[in-house]
Specification:
The protein is mainly α and 434 residues long. It has helices at residues 2-46, 62-77, 87-93, 107-116, 119-146, 151-162, 165-173, 177-195, 203-219, 221-238, 241-253, 255-266, 304-319, 328-343, 350-353, 358-367, 371-393, 398-426. The chain is globular, with a radius of gyration of 24 Å.
Amino acid sequence: MKVGMRNKKGGYQDSKKRQDEENKSIRFAAWLGSNHGILCILTTIVALFPVSCNYIMTGGIVQEWIFRVEELAGGLQKGCFYLYPNLNVLSMTGIYENAMNSNFWFLVPGFLYGLTKNIVLSYRLYMLAVQIITFLTASLFFLHLFGQDGRLAACMGIVLYMTNPYRIYVCYDHANLSQATAWMLLPLYAWAMYTLTAPGKKVGKLLVAGASLAFLGYADVIFFLTAAGITLLVAIISRRGSFCFAVMSGGILFFPGLYRLCRYLFTEDFIEWNIPLQMIMGKGYRFGQFFSSYAFRDGKPGMGLGMMICLLAAVWMRFVYREGEKDKGKRGFLYIALFLSVLSLSSFPWDVLQRLGNWAVRLISLINTPSVFWGMAIAAFCIPAAAGMERLFKGKDRTAAIVTLAAAVLLCVGICVYQCNMLTYTRLPLELGG
């Protein structure tokens, strides 16, 4: 009889303990749900640390952006808008990495520079706008993807995207502002394509999807081709004709860019530009470089510890608790990320593909480095990583889930702060002429 009483008492205590843990996790989830906006805004502020400097840092290809903006300002004063840079702009910098990319998104900083003659102010305001709009587009996509009941996953996705080591590298270290703009637009395009899967009238959604793809193309042509190619592949696999129409409408809106690209690939119109032809296979990632955290070499950032923890949580829930992602749309981003990761490997046979002809040599040379595909892969990994963290949080061990979530957020923000501080304290101000 006494044993039975002890069992009942112990069972009551265990039940009470589980109830307390559940209430604690519910309170934490409620707090995070009500304060997720504040957390995401703080994450965006962290990504803006380099913009707080009252100068433009040396390094990367920022000089190319400066020359483009100066040319735009001069053209606007004459009543002209140069959609694409002239040869003398690229030859003065010796940087041909973005030779096929347009000036479309640099119109505002060009206009601002024409008014103020202050290139530093134009740069700081442009980067401020890029980071804020990136936060808004990421919020739009992740909140739509996970819905009202998935605020925790949406918050984690935004944090992962904003503090992505490759994105920070592109924005400030490599200073490729064309790619930084493309990163700003990727969530917008993903959101537009995801809305096509919902029931309802498709005409307006097709126009929005096509426009977002065209905007992506006017930022970076390689991002356009990659996004369009993956979209067509998904359309074939999922048998969604609306995706094909979205790519077609995007191609029509991006016709000037596609026409210019075709002229470069299949004619000799740009022969005097001397755009470098190169073999890019050796510039790809080795497998171990995917897992670097805060330090990296040769312009190859890894996924970072925060992303690694979230992905490990997803793997843990899948193979230990048999709780995988049930939504096919969200699960599809994992396959996209893995496919892009393969493209970024140094063992991927880009050299073999270049043997298809002169057009292939020119097109692959425009990629410059397969690392760009790893950056896109990390962007796609944000979805399964955030979803995995949400499944972990809904599991039985709520205390461990809270600790894991807090560790992931702190590591994401901490590594971002480390990257930004290393740049601001080690880079000298750029000497600007005249």
